[in-house]
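Lecture 7, part B: from sequences to assemblies.

Below are the input chains for today's worked example.
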Amino acid sequence: MNYIFRQKQLATLLRRGGFDALLVTHLPNVLYLCGFTGTAGVLLFQVSDRAHKATFYTDGRYDQQAHAEVKSAKVVVGKKAAFAEACEGAQKAKVRTLGFEADHLSYSAYKQIGMTVRGKTRIKPAAGLVEQLRLIKDGDEIGQIRASVLLAASLFQTALSVIKPGVAETQVAGELELQARRAGAEKMSFDTIVAAGPRSALPHGRASAQPIPPQGFIILDYGVILASYCSDMTRTVHAGAVSRSHRRMYEAVKEAQLASIAAVKPGVETGEVDRAGREVLKKAGFDAFFTHSTGHGVGIEVHEQPRLAKGQTQKLAPGMVVTIEPGIYIPEEGGVRIEDMVLVTETGHEVLTPTAKDLITL
Ligand code: ZN
Ligand code: ZN
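Predicted structure of the full complex, as structure tokens:
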């Protein structure tokens, strides 16, 4: 990973924003800038006219790990908590304008900065600076994401082989997660969703103890974290004979998903991608049942920028990795969602998820 390049880009953003330093407290951002994968660490990132300096603070528990992982930053293992040490570092460096990650800092931590620098430093909120850089994935990141997507996709058959009427949703999730770990995943990207029968109408139906009914849709939505990068995919399968209305629901979602994917290319607003799928569902009379946005960015975090939703004006650019995941949810009846990960390329897009989307009946 090219940490120096990322740090140079961040330095440019900070100079433009009138900051002399940034306290990076959001761990995915710390990982992005210097490679630390632990759970206690703060990066104090200072800039001057031409140079920048990164100091990574952690505590004794992470001494070895920090020295092994952290690149392009000085490692300080303090006696106090990493955050307290980083604040003191800023105070000693006599930083004039210190940025903090406004979306990722508690009120008490914010007050702690003020008490440490005691009025000699201006404390200024900085929101989304590192996130802005993380929007565009570099070649190394795209390689990791591909591997994560392929690992997740390879587990789909495992899940299918476990799904049978009477088997609890949690059992399906458990088998999937066991196989994920066996294949080398660090963990799941989020709590695995297995939602069968009427529960498939819950867009976020985490696997429950409920048995799979003999009839109806089953939504499987899951992903793995491999070498710190997430994947996220959804397929919907059907138990028992498929009624005409269920067939119509499924085909409408599939068509909507393909329409949104087709709209993905550089320069297109994310709201347009959302609209393309929503139009298809509207024509089929299902738009009222599509109750969430079309997708989100994926990278170090499973939900990151950009948002693909109604009215969003952010433009797609090469190197973005997004999900396309329209759905239909009819209360008490059931739901359908199909989700792929898609890379924005120079000329259009590449669908990363290799799994077929014809309706599978079990
Ligand atoms: Zn998902
Ligand atoms: Zn998703």
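Note for the exam: The chain has a mean pLDDT of 97. Keep this in mind when comparing with the next example.
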